[in-house]
Design goal:
Layout (H helix, E strand, L loop, with lengths): L1 E10 L2 E11 L4 E5 L6 H8 L7 E6 L2 E2 L5 H7 L1 E4 L11 H10 L7 H14 L2 H4 L10 H13 L5 E5 L7 H16 L3 E6 L2 H7 L2 E6 L2 E7 H6 L1 H7 L4
Parallel strand pairs: 3-8, 3-9, 6-7, 7-8
Antiparallel strand pairs: 1-2, 1-4, 4-5, 9-10
This protein binds adenosine-5'-triphosphate.
């Protein structure tokens, strides 16, 4: 579904991604792990049209994404849940969700949008309970649910998430990752970027380890979880 070949990303003359190749097949949940500054966010930004001037190839459903702006990428079928959530605090929870359907995607069929809103509220009942409350009054975990819900409102075929566990309590992390598993079981393809390697690999089919802009390890998530190098560097145990 997504194929990245020899991707190179630059900030000025600094190369932040140094020739990365990776693939995500339809229906897979792929975790991309790596330390702070490894280039995980940069890679997602390149996919989503947020980073000009990258080199290499990014194909989504066999079509190149080069040169597309973020709304075009969303319309192609990729939604991003950005790092730090980036919800709109003064707007109500429901208006934040609707932004996902109308601002980037410009969906026309209001009945379908209403049905999706209900589906997302069933998935995250707190978003129904707090429907009219300013989004900024939600807890961090609730805001993360809102950010995921907003991304789903564009009906993506590929959902990309940038560190959804960041700053959340362990129980909330578990709940968010459970939701991702459910979405995958429903057939959604997911690319999950995480520093929380243990949690991300536990729910993934396959994983990639990124280090200073390069893929240093890849394979089935179960194998990475027991790999001695991954354990030493990312899981904090021998
Ligand atoms: P984090 O978990 O901290 O977000 P990351 O793995 O997502 O880390 P990136 O944010 O993609 O890493 O950063 C990759 C490299 O690019 C880092 O060395 C970073 O300092 C650099 N970088 C990121 N954004 C910029 C920018 N706007 N200008 C210059 N350098 C940048």
């Amino acid at each position: 579904m997504l194929r990245i070949k020899n991707l190179k990303c630059y900030y000025g003359r600094i190369m932040a991604i140094k020739g990365v190749s990776l693939s995500v097949r339809k229906g897979e949940l792929i975790s991309l792990i790596g330390a702070n500054g490894a280039g995980k966010s940069t890679l997602l930004e390149a996919i989503c049209g947020l980073l000009p001037g990258w080199k290499g190839e990014i194909l989504f459903e066999d079509e190149p994404l080069a040169g597309l702006d973020p709304p075009s990428v969303v319309r192609r079928g990729i939604s991003l849940v950005p790092e730090g959530r980036l919800i709109f605090p003064p707007l109500s929870v429901t208006d934040n969700l609707k932004l996902g359907a109308y601002t980037l995607y410009r969906r026309k069929r209001h009945k379908d949008v209403a049905a999706d809103l209900e589906m997302i509220r069933d998935m995250f009942p707190i978003l129904r309970e707090r429907a009219n409350q300013p989004a900024g009054t939600l807890s961090g975990g609730e805001q993360q649910m809102l950010a995921i819900g907003r991304a789903l409102m564009a009906r993506p075929r590929l959902l990309a998430l940038d560190e959804p566990s960041m700053g959340l309590a362990p129980l909330m992390v578990e709940q968010i990752l459970e939701t991702l598993l459910t979405l995958r079981q429903q057939g959604l393809t997911i690319l999950l970027v995480e520093q929380n390697a243990q949690a991300a690999l536990k729910i993934a089919d396959r994983g990639y380890v990124l280090e200073t802009g390069k893929v240093v390890l890849q394979g089935p998530a179960s194998e990475l979880l027991t790999d001695s190098e991954v354990k030493r560097a990312y899981l904090g145990r021998d």
